[in-house]
Design brief:
By secondary structure, the chain is mostly helical. It has one domain: MetI-like (MetI-like fold, Orthogonal Bundle), CATH 1.10.3720.10. Helix 7 crosses helix 9. It is flat, with a radius of gyration of 25 Å. It starts with 10 loop residues before the first helix and ends with a helix.
């Protein structure tokens, strides 16, 4: 006879079954957060072996730094631009591939290839391709009589955006393509009987059904773009000047300078900025789940 503790639905069983996940969260989430907040309240540097409690001084130092606000501004604009374009391109590609045509499988493999490459490696590859002396792209421009420096302050931001589009548009494309496969064929047949044009089918049938996927894809890409580090750091190091310094690069530069307290304070501020997004996402996902359950019951 099984112990009453393990009867399905009892509080004891729920706690025991949740214990591994709770331990995982404590070790990998709660402990680093607590340690980071503690460090942010201390004057902890490489030159100070006995850190002193300084309260909110580190937070004030970060908020009073123009470099922080410039990094926040660039990161926010960069995130909005790349996320919006990648959602649009991914959706359009998914519509193209949502039908049979010759060479579809081979072309699909080519399109999703960039998302399999590590961002740092992608940055190294494009640093060589865009190099002014040995790069392929500058050589093509020179053959057309144009001497263009793709790492100049006028060109580097569009280059970074294009590079992000090349690597992460396949991610949104895969999400939308998978979602399109679940759209009932009967809806397309009914639209055909009503002689609805293709744009009307997309706006009235496809987009409403894909709204949860659009929201999730946008959220995941926005979070990932907001914390971008490897590709931009490998390509520009945050330059020219500080024009391409993201928040992650800004924090890394402080950390590499040995000022752990200020770096922790900056990381805490970034976490506070992003924290309000969590309840919005949870509420939206719960709403989608409830709506789907109601439809299934009907």
């Amino acid at each position: 006879m099984s112990s009453p503790l393990f009867v399905t639905g009892t509080k004891g069983a729920r706690w025991i079954l949740s214990a591994p996940l709770l331990a995982f969260l404590v070790v990998l989430v709660v402990y680093p957060i607590v340690t980071g907040v503690q460090t942010a309240l201390l004057d902890r540097t490489l030159l100070n072996p006995e850190p002193e409690f300084v309260g909110a001084d580190n937070f004030g130092r970060v908020l009073g730094d123009d470099g922080f606000w410039n990094a926040l501004r660039f990161t926010a604009i960069y995130t909005i631009v790349v996320t919006a374009i990648e959602l649009a391109l991914g959706f359009l590609l998914a519509l193209v591939f949502d039908r049979a045509f010759p060479g579809k499988k081979w072309l699909l493999s080519v399109i999703i290839l960039p998302v399999m490459i590590a961002p740092a490696l992608m940055g190294i590859m494009f640093r060589l391709i865009l190099n002014q002396d040995i790069g392929l792209v500058p050589a093509i421009f020179r053959s057309m009589g144009q001497n263009v420096s793709l790492f100049s302050s006028d060109s580097i931001i569009p280059v970074l955006v294009i590079l992000d589009l090349l690597q992460w548009t396949p991610f949104t494309f895969l999400l939308f393509y998978s979602a399109l496969q679940s759209v009932p064929e009967e809806l397309y047949e009914a639209a055909a009987l009503d002689r609805a044009r293709y744009p009307r089918v997309i706006s009235s049938i496809v987009i409403p059904l894909l709204l949860p996927t659009i929201f999730i894809a946008g959220f995941l890409r926005a979070i990932d773009a907001f914390r971008t580090f490897d590709t931009i750091y490998v390509l520009t190091g945050g330059g020219p000047g500080n024009s391409t310094t993201t928040l992650s690069i800004y924090i890394y530069k402080i950390l590499s300078g040995g000022d752990f307290g200020t770096a922790s304070a900056a990381a805490a501020i970034v976490a506070i900025v992003m924290l309000p997004l969590v309840p919005i996402v949870v509420r939206r996902l719960n709403g989608d789940v409830i709506a789907k359950n109601k439809k299934m019951k009907r």
